[in-house]
Amino acid sequence: MQRITILGATGSIGASTLDVLARHPEQYQVYALSAHTRVEELAAACRSCRPARAVVGSADAAARLAALIADLPTSVEYGEQALCDIASSADTDTVMAAIVGAAGLAPTLAAARAGKKILLANKEALVMSGQLFMDAVREHNATLLPIDSEHNAIFQSLPAAFGRVPAAAGVAKILLTASGGPFLNRAVETLGDVTPDEACKHPNWVMGRKISVDSATMMNKGLEVIEAHWLFGAPADQIEVVIHPQSVIHSMVSYVDGSVLAQLGNPDMRTPIAHALAYPDRIASGVAQLDLTQMAALQFFPPDFTRFPCLALAFDALRAGGTAPALLNAANEVAVDAFLERRIGFRDIDRVIRHALDAVEHGPAPSIEAVLAQDARAREAAAHAVASLH
Ligand code: NAD
Ligand code: MG
């Protein structure tokens, strides 16, 4: 029996995880669930999985949750320390890290330091703290399995004993596929007017609002380039973004002998979730088998960096190193929030990020405290830029 903690149980990834787990009650038991504000949804999840612990974001949310599940054996807690506790408890084996944004860093790191099996959806945590996070995984013998569909596909296309040295495994390039999001073909001059709902209408995936906007700007792919760098040890020049609007090939690895290995499947996050949960075994995920004969043509082309300036900013941040990716991530979170709240336009997102990157000088990232200090500075600079645009 594998005991699981789900950080971010009420989100899109959290819901898909609960769906896969419910198909295999004899193999998995939910130890703890977390949510930030969606107390009713968390109560419903507690009712079906009966976890030992549930964590929410505030005392008020905890009181509401406790009232809703007073008849259950679940203990209710709140706050960041409680998140770290359920991620590192001796009573859990596996942690699904599915909180969105920088808020997921502390509990995901706590899971790494406790040597857990981590199913990583929360790419922002890795982008912010890359080296420190990977060091913690190694030092504490944690297992890190990628949930992001592209990274899960790359992981599946690499040799089993891959040691994060691409050259040693004969890897020439990592080919990171990207759908291009909802605005791939929209006239560039109309992008300034798009609404949050239009930006969140992804052609192939149903996801949380922050990652949906990131997909529309292609910052999501930029964060994934940085994520791939840390997960697979590949330098920026060895990671190539390929636009593939159908999202059937989830990414590829190109080898020095000319072979290209890919992972394909219907676009449904339950596949990478089931893969990582059962790894190295396989379990059913509820996803329909891919029928290639029903597939329209699969297309591939290079990204347009002028249409998607956020992708270029992310490559620059990866090459700059140190705290540059953390600054990029923090500024992006502020800009996306402001866009979702209609305080800035879509085309202002990259402007705000660029402003923050110009205003705050990046430096080395010797500790999490240093990263968080830079994160705070970038948020301040980005908020300033938002206010000046507003
Ligand atoms: P979502 O917005 O649907 O859910 C986010 C979850 O995080 C919710 O459970 C929410 O309660 C929790 N949360 C939000 N703010 C919090 C805070 N301040 N403190 C604690 N918890 C908080 O997001 P999602 O689409 O499920 O994405 C989750 C993560 O997975 C993101 O990092 C995203 O980039 C990544 N991811 C998602 C998908 C997808 O298909 N949805 C694919 C790949 C990667
Ligand atoms: Mg992805």
UniProtKB/TrEMBL annotation:
Catalyses which reaction(s): 2-C-methyl-D-erythritol 4-phosphate + NADP(+) = 1-deoxy-D-xylulose 5-phosphate + NADPH + H(+)
Task of the protein: Catalyzes the NADPH-dependent rearrangement and reduction of 1-deoxy-D-xylulose-5-phosphate (DXP) to 2-C-methyl-D-erythritol 4-phosphate (MEP).
Binding site for Mn(2+): 148, 150, 224
Gene: dxr
Cofactors (names): Mg(2+); Mn(2+)
GO molecular function per UniProt: 1-deoxy-D-xylulose-5-phosphate reductoisomerase activity; isomerase activity; manganese ion binding; NADPH binding
Pathway: Isoprenoid biosynthesis; isopentenyl diphosphate biosynthesis via DXP pathway; isopentenyl diphosphate from 1-deoxy-D-xylulose 5-phosphate: step 1/6
Record-listed 1-deoxy-D-xylulose 5-phosphate binding positions: 123, 149-150, 179, 202, 215, 220-221, 224
Record domain 1-deoxy-D-xylulose 5-phosphate reductoisomerase N-terminal: where: 4-130
Binding site residues for NADPH: 10-13, 122, 124, 208
Domain DXP reductoisomerase C-terminal: 264-380
UniProt KW rRNA processing keyword: no
Native source species: Massilia aurea
Keyword field contains Lipid biosynthesis: no
Family as reported in the entry's similarity comment: Belongs to the DXR family.
The protein, known as: 1-deoxy-D-xylulose 5-phosphate reductoisomerase
